[in-house]
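histidine kinase (Pseudoalteromonas denitrificans DSM 6059), 429 aa
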Amino acid sequence: MSKNKTLKRYILKVDFIVASVIILSYTILINIYFMFGLDEGNYQDLHLEAISFSQAYNKHLAPKLPKSIHFNGYLNWQTLPDWAQKQFPELAQVTQTQMSNVKLKPEGNLIAWPEQVIFILAKPLNDGKTFYLIRKIDIETYQALSKRSIKNMFKLTWPLALLFLIMMHLSVHVLLKRTMKPLFRLGTWIDDLTLENVSDPIPDFDFKEFKHIAKQQKIAMLRISDVLSKEQDFLRHASHELRTPIAVVKSNAQLMERRLTEDKSLASVARIKRAALNMQHMTETLLWLSRDDDKEKLSTSKLNITDMLSHLIEDNQYLLQGKTVKLNINMDNELQDLAATPCRLILNNLIRNAFQYTAEGTVNFSFKNSKLIIENINIADGELDYTGSDYGYGLGLRLVDKIIHKMHWQYENIQISGGRKVVIQFSNK
């Protein structure tokens, strides 16, 4: 089906085809009934004439055989002309009144107007003889009357058919105009339907079916609103409730770190601190994404991306323990007017991703002209699964995608030989 096809055009096309078929069918039917009416009229004339003759003949009144411009009568089969015997051999022997006709057309032309029409009636008499009554119509003889009348009938039929087609087309056009107008209003209302105005009353769309569609659309939007509201409430509540245990874990980890001196104990405390730090970053990420604030509502400040990146690299160094990974850092010490929270969140997730999926190799950091490039290249034996749910498509990078989209920064995350290359352009220049 064509992409540009509209419901209106489709209905008008179907309407034209159906109307044309109906008109053609009725025209053919009218012509069939017209010809049937002519045949029936001639049969009635023959039948009445035959009854009149047979009644007189059976009463032995010796009536004369009809012979005029309309009829020719014959007694018995042998008296019929040879051409009549050849045309109607089935009437040689009859036991009851029978009638037949034949239309003679020019040879080789089956759809031409007949040149001659012959009607014949065979009626048995009381003495065993058969009375035949023939009516032969030469079209040329009746051309001035019958053929002209028939042509006039055709001339009247086609204008009426055209008038019917126009009336049907106009009625469908008016009907479409009446129904499409509220349909367009329904489409506009659905386009403008948002979570803010979904609770407003549904406008009147004239037809029950359109009102039902609008009602179902509103119900679906309310369900979406309810799901989003529950999701945001969950994120806010979870983030809020997690703040206290995270703070308790961090403070007690710091207290234990001051009091303990064993290496094993200090390692355990370090793991607790890192876990608390990760929970804090994830909580801040989820909480910030659940807010409805636009970029303009976020407070910005002069940030030193180099310092922030250095601190985050240090916080995530535990991911490189036991690995042979070289860090190449090439960054300009420039200040950027950015929102601190989203910037720190995406950098932390990207660094974690690069460290986690580099068993042996290098991780390159570059920051120049507001463009940050993080590239990890793994050269360890055995290939890492880059298609898993944690690499490139994991929760961390999905959150990065959302944050980047919300901040309208430019972002690329491409696969390279042995790893990934991420490019972020903080400036919209």
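Residues 386-393 have pLDDT under 50 and may be disordered. The two ends are 44 Å apart (CA to CA). ok done for today
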